[in-house]
Amino acid sequence: MKRSSSSFVVGFAEREAALLAPYAMPSAKSAGRKYPEPEHPYRAPFQRDRDRIVHSAAYRRLSHKTQVFTGELGDYHRTRLTHTLEVASVARTLARALRLNEDLAEALALLHDIGHPPFGHAGEEMLGECLAPHGGFDHNRQALRIVEELEQRYPGFPGLNLSQEVLDGQAYRARKHTSPDSPLLEVQVVEAADSVAYDTHDADDALQIGLLGFEELLDVPLWKEAVRRVESRWMQLKPDQLRRSVIHELIDWQVSDLLTGATQRLAEGQVDSIDAVLSRQILIHPGHEMAEKKVELERFLFDRVYRHPQVLAVRRHAQDQLQEMFGEFSARPELMPPHFLALCEHAGVARSVGDYLAGMSDRFAQQQFQQLCRRRRGAAAH
Question: Is the pLDDT assigned to residue 176 strictly greater than 90?
Fold first, then answer.
């Protein structure tokens, strides 16, 4: 028997009613989109959001954007895209275990770093300096600018016209250090998953490319305990096997800690609705002991990895290139593609140049810098 389009929509509502906890965000309660659209016959709203993010140009560019280490240091380590996929994987695991809306959590995870410029945090810091007189630069706010304005993929509206819950979740990331409000639990699992991913994988990458020795990490309590747990189950592992097993243990340990704590807080706080979630403090976070261990690991990574001389040298070089390009394109905006030149009319030259530079991959930024250098040499020759 042929099934009608409306029956697919009803099926999503029935499925979510059966599977989701009362504190999860169901599609039926979504505040909708800025530009109204008909319901899709076989995709729920947050599923459509996820698909739109994945098919965006900004998402594809993440494959050639730095997470921590640039391509000059090898090709094993995470890019911004592989980090994003790992965050999405952890977020879905947390969401499913807590009976949250997995589609919403995944969409938020896939979106969370889409506003990052080339060269990782080094690029963000430099764009922040360049744009300081014009409101600064923040990758979380830039993600919203991308999905609300800069992406031009659909004829009926600018941006991706994502659901309000996805936009609100990303907006929370931009203000989380100053906001007293708590977001949806789906937003909270992405925040927690992001921390799990970068704490674990930055150490893994640093080991693989030789910035750290395995023995150095044994001074970090979280890492040392993970090694002890692994060696209590498997003896005489080869170095690569041990490293991989420790990484797996760190992820599983952190996720288990998050789930144990969240389940207890939800039960003790009698959290039985979305309103109850929004009126509480953050419910999904590491336990006290785990949080202390994560702070120690992050402090170690900052001192020994993020401030490593090789990393700092690459950062300085990348920042010099971005700063020079910002000045050049600001002085001659006609050198930018027509779309960004047109943006200057309502966004201003500085912000439009920032949008252009932020959207570049590492490789394209280097190519553009070389082109500018050749143009200057050619002008000087004449």
Answer: no
Helix (H) or strand (E) segment spanning residue 373: helix 362-381
Q: Which two tokens stand for residue 201?
A: 């994988």
| Residues in a beta bridge with 159 | 152
For 234-258, the pLDDT digits (tens) are 988 999 999 999 999 999 999 999 9
What residues are paired with 152 via a beta bridge? Answer: 159
In CATH, the architecture of 5-381 is Orthogonal Bundle (1.10)
Distance CA 199, CA 173 (A): 18
Task: Check if the beta carbon of residue 222 is closer than 8 Å to that of residue 291.
Answer: no
Please count the CA atoms within 13 angstroms of the CA of 246 that sit on its side-chain side.
28
Beta bridge pairs of residue 79 = 66
- Rounded to 5°, the CA angle 64-67-70 comes to 65
Q: List the one residue out of 67, 65, 80 whose CA is nearest residue 301.
A: 67
Do 33 and 164 contact (CB within 8 A), yes or no?
Answer: yes
Select from 347, 348, 346, 355 the least CA-distant residue to 326: 355
HEC sequence for 128-194: HHHCHHHCCCCHHHHHHHHHHHHCECCCCCCECCCCHHHHHHHHHHHHCCCCCCCCCHHHHHHHHHH
Q: What stretches of 320-378 adopt beta strand conformation (E)?
A: none
Instruction: Give pLDDT, residue 159.
Output: 96
Q: Residues of the chain with pLDDT > 90: what percent? A: 78
Using pLDDT thresholds of 50, 70 and 90, give the confidence band for residue 10.
low
- Rounded distance between C-alpha atoms, residue 81 and residue 15, angstroms: 31
Cα 165 from Cα 183, distance rounded (Å): 10
363 token code pair: 């490789």
Q: How far apart are CA 241 and CA 230, in angstroms?
A: 10
Assess contact for 372 and 325: CB atoms under 8 A: yes
| Spatial distance between the Cα atoms of 219 and 162, rounded to a whole number of angstroms | 45
Query: pLDDT digit string (tens) for 198-210?
Result: 999 889 988 988 8
For residue 331 the two structure tokens come to: 């002085």
Closest by CA position to 169, among listed 140, 199, 136, 146: 140
CA dihedral 42, 46, 47, 53 (to 10 degrees): 130
